[in-house]
Design goal:
The complex is a heterodimer of chains A (277) and B (226). By secondary structure, chain A is mainly beta. Chain A is built from 4 helices and 20 strands. Chain B contains 6 helices and 13 strands. Classes of the chains: A mainly beta (277), B alpha+beta (226).
């Protein structure tokens, strides 16, 4: 079980994301983080999508006992955060071990602080948002601010994040054209990032992959993150300046949120893939 | 849209691929989707064979029903335009000659007598895909794309004739230079061609080609004066 436990709740601690949009017509307020910039920094430090929920702390910090290893990022107001009794500052990523205790005091300079979590928090989503709306008692954790003894669970994503050069792939439109052996090879071998990569595409080099056919009879759509396989058998990952259509088979794709991490790996270094199917 | 003809594949709520059994339907549907500006669509790429919709967090599976209810936009009568070119001595010719077994003069004549049709825009800004290429001239794309193809190159690849509008890498075989620049950087759409337009190649003498190029005409301006 991956969870944390609220030892002391702080003054007003609730889970918030970017909130609900376009529902004022139905008298449903936006909700969401009060300081979007600080919340975004926490998510950015963890390479997470900007719409993920964070824990918003107000004025007095909560005390949290972690019952599983994870990684968190703390931003916003400085609550004199301590991990197992040692000051850790703000705007940092902290590696958490099972049993660790995170605690803080009153906000020193500002009012609100944020904790981002590596794992995918299991929270209640209402109208497409996990933000807690206290007045209507919905969203987030039980629709309310945290209390002593609350247990918040998450799904682990740390396995894939531990190795910073490992990326999850999803099968693309022409995945089935890859020969069976090449499907496993794609995920078992290390790829070297070729020096002729650029802003259009990341060229990988490894043992060539084999496909039933490499060329489509038509040019098909491409998005950043799509992985093309030309007849050379060496995959190309489409990047930010990448072409919008192409004629090579699209064997797989990586999610947009992983591109930041991918784009920071120096040329000539190695990376590996795992298949999410 | 005619639902029985349409196949929508959902890739993990990251993007949708729409395919159709009937020819030409996706182009019309694509125009409708572009005009509809649906909030759950972040990017839209339309090709004759597939439409790709990049989704954002506003997407839910019910949105697929909304897509199915869209009516394809009305057919717009195509223009007929001339594309002024000069065949080049490009290295890529040797591959084309070997693959087709035809002489260069023969290929030129076939190309000049073909009525092409604008099929789609894609690849990079201004790149125009045209269909109508005789099957005899369908040659595979290069196994290793060239690192540099100059802007305003006319090339063939698979079933298409295409124009590279900007300097770029490219996997197609270059056959000619184009005298007008297709890309109008500050305009939207950035190209004067529309999907469905009929295109004929017009071969120019070297001197005339340079004159037209010097004048910096757009495609429409060239067609108005020629």
């Amino acid at each position: 079980m991956l969870f944390l436990e609220i030892v002391k709740p702080g003054l007003l601690s609730s889970f918030q994301d970017l909130g609900r949009k376009g529902l004022s017509y139905y008298a449903i307020p936006n909700s969401g983080v009060m300081d979007r910039n600080a919340a975004q920094i926490a998510l950015l430090l963890l390479d997470k999508g900007h719409e993920e929920p964070v824990l918003e702390c107000t004025s007095l910090a909560p005390t949290i006992r972690f019952h599983a290893a994870t990684r968190i990022a703390i931003t916003g107001a400085d609550f004199s955060w301590k991990l197992n009794g040692t000051y850790v500052g703000v705007n940092n990523v902290l590696e958490i071990k099972s049993g660790d205790l995170l605690e803080g005091g009153f906000a020193k300079d500002k009012l609100r602080g944020y904790i981002g979590f590596q794992g995918e928090l299991i929270l209640s989503s209402v109208y497409g948002s996990k933000s807690t709306l206290l007045s209507a008692a919905f969203g987030g954790f039980a629709g309310r601010s945290l209390r002593k003894g609350d247990k918040i669970f998450w799904q682990d994503q740390t396995k894939l994040e531990k190795d910073v050069k490992h990326f999850f792939l999803y099968p693309g439109p022409e995945f089935n054209l890859l020969e069976q052996e090449s499907r496993s090879r794609l995920c078992s071998q290390k790829y070297t990032i070729s020096t002729d990569s650029n802003r259009m595409g990341l060229r990988l080099s490894g043992v060539p992959l084999k496909a039933v056919s490499y060329q489509l009879s038509y040019s098909a759509p491409l998005l950043p993150g799509f992985i093309q396989l030309p007849p050379s058998g060496q995959p190309i990952i489409v990047l930010q300046d990448g072409q919008t259509t192409g004629g090579y088979i699209r064997i797989a794709y990586i999610r947009e949120v992983q591109l930041s991490k991918l784009n920071q790996i120096p040329l000539g270094q190695q990376l590996s893939f795992g298949l999410f199917s | 849209m005619n639902q029985s003809d349409i196949l929508i594949e959902n890739y993990n709520n990251d993007f949708l691929i729409i395919k159709s059994k009937s020819d030409g339907q996706l182009q019309l549907l694509g125009a409708t989707l572009h005009a509809a500006q649906l909030p759950f669509i972040e990017e839209l790429i339309v090709t004759p064979a597939e439409i790709c919709l990049k989704l954002n967090s506003l997407f839910s599976p019910e949105c697929i029903e909304r897509l199915k209810q869209l009516q394809a936009s009305a057919f717009v009568a195509p223009d007929s335009l001339k594309l002024p070119i000069c065949f080049s001595e490009h290295d890529d010719w040797s591959y084309i000659l070997a693959k087709t077994g035809l002489r260069k003069q023969e290929i030129r004549e076939r190309l000049l007598s073909t009525q092409f049709k604008v099929a789609m825009f894609g690849f990079l800004p201004g790149f125009t895909y045209m269909t109508g290429l005789e099957p005899l001239l369908h040659v595979p794309r290069k196994p290793f794309p060239s690192k540099y193809v100059p802007a305003n190159s006319l090339a063939i690849g698979g079933q298409y004739l295409g124009v590279y509008a900007v300097d770029s890498p490219g996997g197609w075989h270059v056959i000619a230079r184009v005298a007008v620049s297709l890309l109008q950087t500050h305009e939207l759409p950035p190209v004067e061609f529309r999907v469905g337009d009929e295109v004929g190649l017009q071969e120019l003498e070297e001197q005339e080609f340079e004159n037209i190029k010097q004048r910096g005409l757009t495609l429409k301006q060239y067609n108005a004066v020629s």
